[in-house]
Design a protein that fits this description.
The complex is a heterotrimer of chains A (392), B (367) and C (250). Chain A is mainly alpha-helical and 392 residues long. Chain A contains 12 helices and 8 strands. Chain B has 367 residues and is an all-alpha fold. The longest helix of chain B is centred in the C-terminal third of the chain and has 34 residues. Chain C is globular, with a radius of gyration of 18 Å. In chain C, α3 packs parallel to α5, α4 packs across α5 and α5 packs parallel to α6. The two termini of chain C are 32 Å apart. The chains are: A mainly alpha (392), B mainly alpha (367), C alpha/beta (250).
């Protein structure tokens, strides 16, 4: 038998009719056209900006902002720079996006699973919710939620109260918040998480060795709570809470959430949850009945079927579009400007109005969102490659 | 081993599987959890529905009477705000006497949309019909010809503007999306990179930033002295935005065309553009009709954002109608429900249609 | 033919309906002896798949009694679980779990239902994989294998429960022709080891080689049952003759 030889080297024939030459020509032409177009736009922009006396450059970021921001996660006052103001905006965006993602996931998964309920009323309500909330523009929903908050709720001098601890009014929502020891409790929770993970590993090892399964949920949960309490004890058992109380003109104390934040959060959550519900529903549906039957024939009970066969396969179908919805939520938080919540777009808008640096500010906005999207895409691609069901 | 075989005629089932009682048993009271859910939901509905009925219908004020509305606050809805303000909400700042023109223009667009949904019209003439409709729309709205008085674009608003923005942007974005989708699949790396960069850049940013860019930056892009109409800017922004999303959809359709089709076209001697035009695109596009409908539904909802750049489509027109009117401003909620209904009916109808088309396509594929 | 006083599977006047009017199983009486090997054939819609799916309660019957290894099949979870431990099933579409390796597919039930330690479960799994001659694919994923290989894995998976009864629902109908033989060979080996088998299939060669009894079903009833030689060479009933002419003729 002759050993297989390697193929002869490719010879390139440079003629006008060869695909390779034509390819190069097309690309060069395309790039030239694009380059010319971009140069033309840049040239016009420069000319226009000179004519209008608009300066360019990012140096304005160091100048004093001169405007106040309604709610900030870090200390800020109007004397600080535009750059700082925009950073405050970024933090506000992150705050509402993270909270939105958490609540949307909970609500969306509940609705998606509810579509498969045995009870027809539950099924109908979930279906009705999805159709009602996804067929109305988000902007309109945000405006309506904001209206509820600033017109329909009582004024802050006579707020609605729940048990004297929770206060709801035009000024927002106030609830008790501990003033000390929070860090320790969070530290305790972290330790609890690690303990829970180690416990579950022990249970799995024991299961593989002896066939006896152990408690994988309640024990780790208990550990979480125990270590949180331990954290609190280590902090010296602080008992100082800031309690909100009704003052003549407003509610003071405790942790306060502004109506702008609440309207945006609730609007984003209820809207995106309807899409998440559809994603979850599609994922569960995608697992074929044959899988369910094979699992039944092997003697698995419904919980085991869900855990070992249906959910792992459903998750693979759900995760990519779910991440897409998270991205949509983050991008949609840019609508904060219509409810007056100071997110990055809203603050950049104010900055444009005051400094005239439209091009730079818009570039900053786009950069912020692009980095979020690209990071998420990269993580998603990595996840997909890892979890992909291997085929031929 | 075999007794004489006696065929048995089919009998009906002794246990009724259908009928209202059996349905209720299976779907409402199957087990204790289900029964509990039925009871809870039932109680909530029994409490809420009469209250809702009272507020929406019984105690509501339908006359455009602001004082009666104030008197009915908390008891009934004020639909009078709709009766009073519907023309401003629906048509924006368009001159009052000429409002038959935007009405006609809206009906024209809706009519063209409806016939686009019917399979019998899916021919190459559809594009021409759309061009004619859009031309008719602009003539009716803008005027200046055929004896119609001229109306500046700043005065256009409300529902016709919403429809026009959505339809025109989709129409213009479509060829761009096809080109970008083909570009993404091209073998030439430069073209592929440009297409990928465009799609990823646009999809990574919120629509509002694209609208800001269109609104603030387009005037800077054009030569000095040339002014760009705000409508043109917004349509350009929407088009660029939606083309990126549609490009992904079209690309999905292109990917679904079996490789054998390309090979058959090659073997018949067809060139690249001929192959795309005659073989690939017809198949790819028919597959993505449901997705394009979904894109249109999203676009229809997204037009509400142009309020932020001072174009008063439906949502913006409402703000215009009520923000400065102290008498009617307390009843904004009812007005919001009014336009919610408009958006909901439009989007829901389109999504039902899109599902129907999907079923049709699936049925035609099933052997 | 093996003798046993108590039948391992007993159908007594079993009736099943889909919805209100589709009478899919009509007054089925059937006794299957331990170790007996039965092939069920018939036109599509005759209820043959439904019949065997009633044995492990993938389908519920509305009238009559079904007893499997002494346990009556009712709306009783314990009874159903007991039956499923003793009955293994092989599906037309294989239904292997694509997110698990071949080995994990096999050890899933012994570990989670049989409460077997992992090592023991894996040993048993490798034994079964050797028996179906596919041990070298243990760490592959199902979609990386051919159809015939996947079906053999499915058979091994069912055998891991050490069932007393094996049910086959058209096991070779979804396979390319060149892979049918490898699966039938495995089934013949299994049959020769004394396990009770009920097989819904059109493969008449298999029936002739292995079956103790052939059951012909049509429109929800057992029309004729006989030894393979008697059935294929001398069908008694008009419908049997009609069916045989259709499938043997081409």
């Amino acid at each position: 038998m002759t050993t297989p030889a390697s193929p002869p080297p490719r010879s390139r024939q440079w003629s006008l009719n060869s695909r390779a030459t034509r390819g190069v020509i097309y690309q060069v032409v395309a790039l030239l056209l694009l380059g010319l177009g971009l140069w033309y736009l840049a040239h016009n922009t420069q000319a226009n900006m000179q004519a209008r006396g608009i300066q360019s450059g990012f140096d304005f970021l160091g100048a004093s902002a001169g405007f106040d921001i309604g709610e900030t996660l870090i200390a800020y006052d109007p004397s600080q720079s535009y750059g700082k103001a925009i950073w405050v905006g970024v933090l506000n965006t992150v705050k509402v996006a993270l909270a939105g993602i958490v609540f949307t996931t909970i609500l969306g998964v509940a609705l998606g699973v509810g579509r498969f309920s045995r009870n027809a009323l539950v099924r109908g309500l979930c279906y009705g919710y999805v159709e009602a909330f996804r067929n109305v523009p988000l902007l309109l929903q945000l405006l309506m939620w904001y209206l509820v908050f600033i017109e329909l709720l009582p004024a802050s001098n006579e707020a609605m109260s729940v048990g004297g601890l929770l206060f709801l009014s035009k000024g927002g929502l106030s609830f008790p918040w501990p003033t000390a020891g929070v860090g320790y409790v969070v530290g305790g929770l972290a330790v609890g998480v690690i303990a829970g993970v180690l416990w579950r590993r022990r249970v799995q090892k024991r299961f593989e060795a002896t066939g006896q399964d152990g408690d994988r949920f309640w024990a780790p949960l208990a550990m979480l709570l125990v270590f949180a309490v331990v954290g609190w004890v280590v902090a010296g058992m602080p008992r100082e809470w800031s309690l909100p109380e009704q003052l003549p003109f407003m509610v003071d104390g405790g942790m306060a959430l502004t109506p702008e934040f609440l309207a945006l959060l609730i609007g984003l959550t209820t809207y995106t949850a309807s899409f998440v519900a559809e994603v979850v529903r599609g994922g569960i549906q995608s697992v074929s009945r044959g899988q369910d039957e094979a699992a039944s024939a092997l003697g698995l009970n419904p919980r085991q079927k869900m855990k070992l066969v249906v959910l792992p396969q459903a998750m693979r179908v759900i995760i990519p579009p779910l991440t897409n919805q998270y991205l949509n939520l983050t991008k949609n938080s840019s609508l904060a400007v219509v409810v007056g919540y100071p997110d990055v777009v809203s603050i950049a808008n104010t900055t444009i109005n005051q400094s005239g640096r439209a091009v730079e500010c818009i570039a900053i906005i786009m950069l912020v969102y692009l980095s979020t999207s690209l990071t998420t895409s990269l993580v998603m691609n990595w996840y997909n490659r890892r979890m992909a069901i291997r085929e031929r | 081993m075999n007794a004489q075989f006696q065929p048995i005629a089919p009998r009906p089932s002794p246990v009724r599987h259908s009928g209202a009682l059996a349905w209720a048993r299976r779907n409402l009271f199957a087990d204790w959890k289900s029964t509990l859910a039925t009871l809870i939901v039932g109680v909530v509905l029994l409490w809420a529905v009469p209250k809702l009925w009272q507020w929406v219908i019984v105690g509501a004020v339908f006359r455009p009477d602001a004082d009666a509305c104030q008197a009915a606050r908390g008891v009934g809805a004020c639909w009078g705000v709709v009766t009073e303000k519907y023309r401003v909400i629906l048509f924006g700042r368009y001159p009052f006497d000429e409002q038959w023109r935007p009405l006609l223009a809206t009906l024209l667009i809706i009519f063209t949309l409806v016939i686009s949904c019917m399979r019998v019209f899916w021919t190459r003439w559809l594009a021409l019909i759309w061009v004619a409709s859009l031309a008719g729309f602009f003539v009716l709205m803008g005027g200046g010809v055929f004896g119609l008085s001229s109306v500046r674009t700043e005065l256009w608003g409300g529902l016709p503007l919403t429809l026009m923005l959505a339809v025109l942007s989709l129409f213009l974005a479509f060829p761009l999306a096809v080109l970008v989708a083909l570009g993404r699949r091209a073998k030439l790396p430069a073209i592929r990179t440009i297409s990928v960069l465009y799609v990823e850049l646009v999809r990574g940013v919120p629509l509002i930033s694209v609208l800001f860019m269109a609104s603030f930056m387009f005037p800077l892009f054009v030569p000095r002295g040339v002014t760009v109409d705000v409508l043109v800017r917004v349509v350009a922004g929407l088009t660029l935005f939606i083309a990126a999303y549609m490009a992904e959809t079209v690309r999905g359709g292109l990917q679904a065309v079996p490789k054998g089709q390309f090979e058959a076209a090659d073997s018949l001697g067809l060139g690249y553009w001929q192959t795309q035009r005659l073989i690939v695109l017809p198949q790819a596009l028919s597959m993505v009709v449901p997705s394009i409908m979904n894109t249109f539904i999203s676009l229809f909802k997204d037009t509400s954002l142009v309020t932020i750049v001072s174009l008063y489509e439906l949502t913006g027109a409402l703000a215009l109608a009520l923000n400065s009117d102290v008498q009617w401003r307390p009843f904004k909620l009812e007005a919001y429900f009014f336009i919610t209904l408009i958006y909901f009916s439009g989007c829901f109808a389109m999504s039902r249609y899109s599902l129907w088309v999907e079923k049709q396509l699936a049925a035609s594929k099933a052997r | 033919m093996p003798e046993q006083t108590q039948p391992i599977i007993r159908f007594d006047k079993v009736n099943k309906w889909y919805g209100n009017d589709f009478h899919v199983l009509r007054d089925i009486d059937l006794n299957v002896a331990k170790g007996e090997r039965i092939v069920i054939c018939g036109p599509s819609g005759s209820g043959k798949s439904t019949l065997i799916r009633c044995i492990n309660r993938l389908e519920e019957h509305q009238q009559g009694v079904i007893e499997v290894d002494g346990v009556e099949l009712k709306d009783d979870i314990k009874a159903i679980d007991q039956v499923r431990k003793n009955v293994g099933m092989v599906f037309q579409q294989f239904n292997l779990f694509p997110h698990l390796t071949v080995l994990e597919n096999l050890t899933l039930s012994p570990m989670w239902v049989g409460k077997m330690p992992k090592k023991e479960a894996e040993e048993r799994a490798m034994q079964q994989l050797k028996r179906v001659r596919i041990a070298e694919q243990a760490s592959k994923f199902p979609l990386q294998l051919s159809g015939g290989q996947q079906q053999r894995v499915a058979i091994a998976r069912a055998l891991c429960l050490t069932p007393k009864i094996m049910l086959f629902d058209e096991p070779t109908s979804a396979l390319d022709p060149e892979m049918i033989k490898e699966v039938l060979d495995v089934m013949i080996e299994l049959a020769n080891m004394g396990i009770t088998m009920l097989c819904v299939t059109h493969e008449m060669g298999f029936a002739k080689a292995v079956a103790d009894r052939v059951i012909f079903m049509d429109q929800g009833q057992i029309v004729e049952q006989n030894t393979p030689e008697a059935f294929f060479n001398n069908p008694q009933n008009e419908r049997s003759k009609d069916f045989l002419s259709k499938i043997l003729g081409h």
